[in-house]
Structures are given as C-alpha cells and as structure tokens.
Known about the structure:
Blueprint: H1 9-93, H2 97-108, E1 113-121, E2 124-131, H3 134-146, E3 150-160, E4 169-177
Antiparallel strand pairs: 1-2, 2-4, 3-4
Amino acid sequence: MAYINLLPWRDAARKERQKQYLTVLTATAMFSFLLIFVVNMIYSARIDGQMQRNNYLANEIKVLDQRIKEISMLNDTKKSLQQRMSLIEQLQGSRNLGTQIMDEIAQAVPAGVYLTQLEKKGTSLLLVGRSESNNRLSNLLREADDSELLASPLLEFIEAGKDSASLLSNFKMHLKVEGFEAVQGEAPVAPAAKGGAK
C-alpha cells in the first residue's frame, strides 16, 4: 500500500521560502543601509576636512592681505622720506648758492658796467644795468661764459640812454646757473638793487 502524506507540506515549504526571502531581504537592506552610512561618513569627513583647509587658507589670505597693506603703507612712507631727503639734499646743496652767485657776478662784471637790478628765478638770472661801452659788455659776456657757475649769457638788448647828456647805455642780460638744481619756490637771490654800481 502506498504512503500518502496528508500534512500540508506545500504550505510549510512556502512559508519557509517566505521566511528565507524576508531574512535575505532584511540582511540586504541592513547591509545597504550600513554601506550608505559608511560612505556618507567618509564623504562627510572629507568635506569637513576640506572646509577646515578652506577656512585655514582664507585666514592666511586675510593675514597676507593685511601684510600687503602694511608693506604698501611702508613703501609710501619710504617714497615720502626719499622725496624729503632729496629736497633736503637740494636745499643743502643750494644753501650758499646766493653768496656764490653774487661773488661770481662781482668777479665777472668789469669796471664801467653798473648793475641796477639782479633777479633769480629757478636757474635763470636776469641782469639789468648800464654800461659805459659795448666793449665792456663784451668783456662781461666773456667772463660769464668762462665762469664755472654761470653759463649761456644772452644779451637781450642795448639801448642808448634817454638822457642825451649821459654816456651810459642801458642793457638787459639773461644768464643760467649751472651745477645746482633749482629748488621750487626759491626766492630771488638778492633784492633788486636799484641804482647799485659795480
């Protein structure tokens, strides 16, 4: 006689398969969740590290910007001091210039030539005066040309005196001062000496 199993073995097998399926599904879900969590932690740590590096670089850039501003201010101060030193050197170099010009002109002006006005503007000199003869003015031009301090003598005009009894001629002459830089705003070397004579 054949053996017949009357128990619901198909239902039991189906339930066992469902249980295994749920177990595998749960394990897969947990493994996936764990994997996503680990990957998220790794990338979060990397992002945090990069943010810290970015903040560090930003702080260092701020420090460098501040130092660049300080260096720029120091450069401006240095330029200002150099300009002041240059001006002081020019003033020191031209301190005795007025006396030297007066001495040089006194040596260059021959007898018979009388200066009535002497004016200095920058490196230019203006001489106005009277002369007994044109030869004496020629001597003055030669002396000024041979001078180490005076240069480029230029006679603007010579005219006979308006007074017919006078033998003196009026003249106007321009000279250059060499070897000294003109100091801006410098006053004339000497006030106009009206009626002065050599």
